[in-house]
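Limitations
The structure tokens in this dataset are predictions for the assembled complex, not deposited experimental models. Users should treat interface geometry with appropriate caution, especially where small molecules or nucleic acid strands are included. An illustrative entry is reproduced here so readers can see what is and is not provided.
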Amino acid sequence: MSKILLVYATKSGSTQEIAEFIASSLRQSGFDVTLDNVQSPNHHPSNYDAIILGTPIYKGMWMPELLGYATLHEKVLTQKPLFLWMSCIRVLEVGGYEHVLSRWS
Ligand SMILES: Cc1cc2nc3c(=O)[nH]c(=O)nc-3n(C[C@H](O)[C@H](O)[C@H](O)COP(=O)(O)O)c2cc1C
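Predicted assembly:
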């Protein structure tokens, strides 16, 4: 069974909820998923077959903790399957309102 480490950052909890949902979905598909909060990580990426990183966007940026984690573990992360996702409200970014209207109205 593939071992997946899902590392997420969160400030107000939404990204944690999404991470838990993704982990639950992957477990139902037979993957062995470990969740780790980047603010107090307990697991090393070298012990896993694939890594998933998730972060909210604040002021157009990843949370610095996740960026720091990716930089710290860059060598390991680039040698394994790596998946990235973000939770955000695109409408808050520059040109975001027009972007959302053009796609969803
Ligand atoms: C102060 C603040 C700044 C934000 N900046 C952005 C942003 O620049 N772009 C964006 O798409 N979403 C932005 N968001 C929305 C958050 O990324 C979104 O609510 C996210 O799900 C929060 O995740 P969390 O609950 O795990 O912290 C911002 C939210 C807040 C409160």
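Some entries come with short summary sentences. For this one: The first strand starts at residue 3 and ends at 8.
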